[in-house]
Amino acid sequence: MTVSVLVVDDSGFFRKRLSEILSATGELQVVATATNGQEALSLVEKHRPDVITMDYEMPVMDGITAVRKIMESRPTPVLMFSSLTYEGARVTLDALEAGAVDFLPKNFEEIARSSSRLQEILRKRLLEVARSHPGRGGGTGAGAGSAPASGSSDTASPAAREQAPRRPATPERRQRSDSRQSATVASEPAESSSGSQRRTAARHYDVVAIGTSTGGPIALQKVLAELPASFPAPIILVQHMPASFTLAFADRLDKLCRIKVRQAQDGDPLEPGVALLAPGGQQMLVEKKGGTGRIRVIPDDGRLNYRPCVDVTFGSIARGYPGKTLALILTGMGADGKEGCRLMKQSGSVVWSQDEKTSVIYGMPMAVAKAGLTDEVLPLDRIAARLIEGVT
């Protein structure tokens, strides 16, 4: 069955080139093109496309405003095209917050150098986005994606925040509080490897590790923004995202959260109440020497699809903190994290995953659950409360 596409961009050259590439796949049909957001709104009502590609800088109505209005009137999966710069990251995160599912670089050479490879990546990404669930994961939006050049060779992912008033990053907000939220959590029962349903008991963890891809930025924002400054464990974040985006994403999270969030640097120590985000385009390891955990950031050698890769980071944590880690897999394409979680379980650690109903794309958490590695399956809006309750 052909997937219908609406292409929205003020560049006639870009509209023509993208339409030709997509139409040549045989699985995607461009049913209409628009030169600005206002025109896109009327064409969405007229053609009801399965998926929309959207530029962000256009006359009359910009892409972010258009995405927001589309999500209000006729929610439709949107793939943004963005520049791979800090400013491009900021704008793209705004678009993801408004409801876009994912993004790709507008410069096609940053996606793939060969036309056949470019066509295959665009085909896969749009088909995945068309099957996604815009509006899941809290707020008004879904997730985002990384460019294959810096996040994945096929798929990628990541990006933004739930729709809530932005809290200023004041010293008062940074104050640690001994008060802990109490929450009654009705999580989905998850089957353990033995087939029984269980809920993990509260305990101390040396590390909380979270891996995610498409839909992850909003999911991460929702979870992290609810944690108190006094959260007792260090947090490691692995989000598929281009190198130029992770700093902007970490800065954004830091302004929204009571815990501290920053992009990890080589040599950073693990600290309670501090979340370290893996830098895009590289691989991140956690090493424990002399009782102290520290970050190692190493160049990617090109052999792995994902940069950063959840499996790589989780594997290093499983070796350094056997039986002392809580691993969590959130929404995302593919199966990255499954093997890392397998190592976690073999070392005696605990694994949680997000449920299908609240995942933008139920790929990564499904892979972990189907492999029998999940101790608990949780809806997104319950994860923060479970972390507060279950990590002592």
TrEMBL record:
GO molecular function: methyltransferase activity; phosphorelay response regulator activity; protein-glutamate methylesterase activity; protein-glutamine glutaminase activity
Annotated Basic and acidic residues bias: 163-179
Segments for region (Disordered): 132-200
GO process terms (BP): chemotaxis; methylation
Domain CheB-type methylesterase span(s) in chain numbering: 201-392
Active site: 213, 240, 336
Ranges of compositional bias, category Gly residues: 135-144
Entry comment, domain topic: Contains a C-terminal catalytic domain, and an N-terminal region which modulates catalytic activity.
PANTHER family: PROTEIN-GLUTAMATE METHYLESTERASE/PROTEIN-GLUTAMINE GLUTAMINASE, PROTEIN-GLUTAMATE METHYLESTERASE_PROTEIN-GLUTAMINE GLUTAMINASE 1
Protein name: Protein-glutamate methylesterase/protein-glutamine glutaminase
Organism of this sequence: Vreelandella halophila
The gene coding this protein: cheB
